[in-house]
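Support request from a user on the community tier.

User writes: "When I paste my structure tokens into the form, the page sometimes reloads and wipes my input. The last time it worked, I copied everything first. Here is what I submitted, just in case something in the input itself triggers the reload:"
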């Protein structure tokens, strides 16, 4: 069972091209998520990901490599703010910070040719993976571009990150892992959302300074 309770936070920031850093603030008074994933995004690109207390930057957009950081104790202090350094004009735009991880782990060591299906209570496909690839064509439109699955097959971890969670996402989610057409593992996760979506939305404008 996962609870999401914080409100949406919206703010606007300004900085100059060449500034050493800017802090994108995101703080909450309540934080009731088990094993949360914190995901900062710019448009559909991953800016920074923190999962279970550690940075996970494998899918980070190359534009942000070596330029982002979060507090080591971010989750404990409910401070998910992001530090962005070496500012350039192309950093201007809207940033979002969201956080929800639907856990699905098995003790078995999985091969990469398994099929993983995440579905909601209505039978809609939330995320599908098979034979080394995600299958977005099988995904229901409600979840398009909003999911990312862990692919830690050796440790049996195929947990799912759901981006931009809102009231519509209150649901019971089922994770099924198939091998050769047979179900190896099936787990369910209940997601409750109170109030508005768990989301910090920030608009960043970088100014160019003329000589």
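"...and here is what came back when it finally went through:"
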């Amino acid at each position: 069972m996962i609870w999401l309770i914080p409100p949406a936070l919206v703010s606007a920031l300004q900085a100059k091209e060449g500034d050493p850093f800017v802090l994108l603030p995101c703080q909450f008074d309540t934080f009731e998520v088990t094993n949360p994933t914190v995901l900062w995004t710019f448009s559909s690109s991953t800016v920074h990901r923190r999962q279970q207390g550690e940075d996970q930057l494998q899918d980070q957009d190359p534009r942000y490599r070596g330029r982002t950081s979060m507090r080591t104790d971010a989750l404990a202090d409910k401070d998910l703010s992001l530090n962005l350094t070496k500012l350039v004009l192309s950093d201007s735009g809207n940033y979002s910070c969201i956080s929800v991880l639907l856990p699905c782990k098995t003790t078995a060591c999985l091969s990469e040719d398994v099929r993983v299906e995440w579905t909601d209570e209505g039978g809609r496909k939330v995320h599908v993976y098979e034979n080394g690839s995600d299958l977005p064509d099988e995904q229901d439109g409600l979840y398009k571009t909003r999911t990312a699955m862990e692919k830690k097959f050796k440790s049996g971890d195929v947990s799912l990150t759901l981006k931009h969670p809102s009231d519509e996402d209150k649901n019971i989610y089922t994770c099924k892992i198939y091998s050769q057409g047979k179900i190896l593992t099936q787990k369910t996760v209940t997601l409750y959302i109170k109030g508005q979506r768990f989301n910090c939305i920030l608009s960043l404008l970088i100014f160019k300074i003329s000589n």
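Agent notes: The reload is a front-end session timeout and is unrelated to the input. Confidence is low (pLDDT under 50) at residues 1-9. The CA atoms of residues 112 and 132 lie 6 Å apart. Escalated to web team.
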